[in-house]
TrEMBL record:
<feature type="transmembrane region" description="Helical">
    <location>
        <begin position="110"/>
        <end position="131"/>
    </location>
</feature>
<feature type="transmembrane region" description="Helical">
    <location>
        <begin position="36"/>
        <end position="58"/>
    </location>
</feature>
<protein>
    <recommendedName>
        <fullName>O-antigen ligase-like membrane protein</fullName>
    </recommendedName>
</protein>
<feature type="transmembrane region" description="Helical">
    <location>
        <begin position="70"/>
        <end position="90"/>
    </location>
</feature>
<keyword id="KW-1133">Transmembrane helix</keyword>
<keyword id="KW-0472">Membrane</keyword>
<feature type="transmembrane region" description="Helical">
    <location>
        <begin position="216"/>
        <end position="234"/>
    </location>
</feature>
<feature type="transmembrane region" description="Helical">
    <location>
        <begin position="262"/>
        <end position="279"/>
    </location>
</feature>
<feature type="transmembrane region" description="Helical">
    <location>
        <begin position="409"/>
        <end position="427"/>
    </location>
</feature>
<dbReference type="InterPro" id="IPR051533">
    <property type="entry name" value="WaaL-like"/>
</dbReference>
<feature type="transmembrane region" description="Helical">
    <location>
        <begin position="380"/>
        <end position="402"/>
    </location>
</feature>
<feature type="transmembrane region" description="Helical">
    <location>
        <begin position="143"/>
        <end position="164"/>
    </location>
</feature>
<feature type="transmembrane region" description="Helical">
    <location>
        <begin position="241"/>
        <end position="256"/>
    </location>
</feature>
<keyword id="KW-0812">Transmembrane</keyword>
<feature type="transmembrane region" description="Helical">
    <location>
        <begin position="284"/>
        <end position="305"/>
    </location>
</feature>
Length: 456
């Protein structure tokens, strides 16, 4: 068969151009090697680092004449990014009851979040433009399932070696005055757990490799479904057995984390998935859920894990702080409802007294962060109505658009986004939870484009 135009190109001495493909390594290396990035001190910094080659490769493909796809509802996300930028104009405002600072003092945190939003947007677009030949959806699901295994392993490490930490290579390279800052430490200093006093006495709460216990719990919920998808996509019984064992073992660090938001999130994911399967006529899921719930109850009654749950439910020390910060966030939203204040703010003192605060010995003592106790409150306080509506509408639109996707990838992806809606009441999303939300969105999007033949 003669390709039209081939003779003319040959006559002019030019060979037909090969379509420019996108390599999978920028995405695959971030996910597969995340424990290494964490140990090196790169951790979440790997997202903006890898966003650079992703952007270059996307621009090269666009320059070659191959159009780039944008995810459904992307206009809402673009509106959110615009709201984030516009709200910076209010950075110099000092709402009542917050620490007075110059706008430049708040700029570092703002630029960090803006960089992460931009980097993760590139991740979403890049992953969505990969084809089945370049990065199969099953492989991406396996990579996300692998990160759930990493999360469980990090949780176990936090349990048995809660005070384990070390100075990373990146941390060694930083000047002492910079690496001693609490914010910088959270980025480059690997540690296994956060040590907190929630139930009487200091206890380690798993955090590795995600930096914070709350982020660990959020990612636990976002990633757990992908382990099941990856295991059941194969015909090997061994993989299925190992996945079930991993989920069973995961109960231990999940309970020991004392993370009530995680417990609720697991319930949300399980109930959502069960509801989807019931609507598909697969009533066996009810028996599976009842059996799993019975096993969980038995484990709590027969082991010390039950005492841990009782102790946490009897000690709601964080309830008052959360209520205090939600009230402050709502007050700020009422005072600046359109564009917000551009970022979070630190309260003057604590909820019971203003006579506590930061010092050279303790940078964050007494000063709570308004907008730091949940993505929803941060959106409302920092970016107002415009940013909040745009953010929620983008993910809500995705859930609605892909609601008919009944493949395992479709159900796991939508379950991850549903769990994020619940988690935003107590967890912040920057950066890794939002990354996993975007990757779930990209898988739903690619399922819609490429069909479900390879997604089952």
């Amino acid at each position: 068969m003669v390709v039209p135009g081939a003779k003319q190109r040959a006559a002019h001495g030019t060979a037909p151009q090969r379509p420019i493909s996108l390599p999978a390594w920028p995405v695959a290396s971030v996910l597969a090697l995340y424990p290494l990035w964490w140990a090196l001190g790169l951790g979440v910094l790997i997202f903006p680092i890898m966003a650079v080659p992703m952007l270059v490769l996307l621009l090269r493909r666009r320059a070659a004449g191959r159009p780039l796809r944008l995810p459904p509802g992307f206009g809402w996300w673009a509106l959110f990014l615009a709201a984030v930028v516009i709200s910076i104009a209010a950075l110099g405002a000092d709402p009542a009851g917050t620490v007075v600072e110059h706008a430049s003092d708040r700029l570092v945190a703002v630029l960090y979040r803006l960089c992460m939003y931009a980097s993760l947007t590139i991740l979403l677009v890049y992953t969505g433009n990969l084809t089945e030949e370049e990065l199969p959806r099953r492989r991406l699901a396996k990579l996300l399932g692998w990160l759930f295994v990493v999360t469980v392993a990090g949780g176990l490490l936090g349990m048995v070696a809660g005070r384990f930490e070390f100075t990373s290579p990146v941390e060694w390279l930083l000047p002492g005055g910079i690496r001693s800052k609490g914010f910088v430490q959270s980025l480059v200093h690997p540690y296994a757990a956060q040590i907190m006093d929630l139930v009487g006495g200091e206890k380690p709460r798993p955090a590795a490799p995600w930096g914070y216990t709350n982020t660990w719990g959020n990612n636990f919920c976002l990633l757990m479904g992908w382990l099941v998808v990856a295991a059941w996509a194969t015909r090997r019984t061994r993989d299925k057995v190992l996945a079930v064992l991993c989920l069973a073992v995961a109960i231990v660090p999940a309970v020991v984390s004392l993370n009530r938001g995680l417990w609720i999130g697991i319930g949300v994911v399980v109930c959502y998935v069960a509801a989807r399967y019931v609507l598909m006529g697969r009533l066996w899921i009810i028996g599976a859920v009842v059996l799993a719930a019975a096993g969980l109850v038995l484990a709590l009654l027969a082991t010390p894990l039950g005492d841990v749950v009782d102790a946490r439910l009897d000690n709601g020390k964080s309830n008052g702080v959360r209520s205090f910060l939600i009230d402050r966030a709502m007050d700020g939203f009422v005072d600046s409802p359109v564009v917000g204040y551009g970022s979070t703010r630190n309260t003057i003192g604590g909820r019971n007294s203003i006579a506590v605060g930061e010092s050279s010995e303790c940078e964050r003592c007494g000063n709570f962060t308004v907008g730091g106790n949940g993505q929803l409150w941060q959106l409302m306080y920092a970016h107002g109505t415009v940013g909040t509506v745009a953010y929620l509408t983008f993910f809500g639109f995705g859930l609605w658009r892909f609601r008919r996707d009944r493949t395992p990838i479709g159900i796991a992806g939508s379950a991850a986004i549903v769990s994020s809606f619940a988690a935003m009441l107590w967890y912040n999303a920057i950066p890794t939870p939002l990354a996993f939300m975007f990757l779930a969105y990209a898988l739903l999007w690619r399922n819609h484009i490429e069909g479900d033949a390879h997604a089952r």
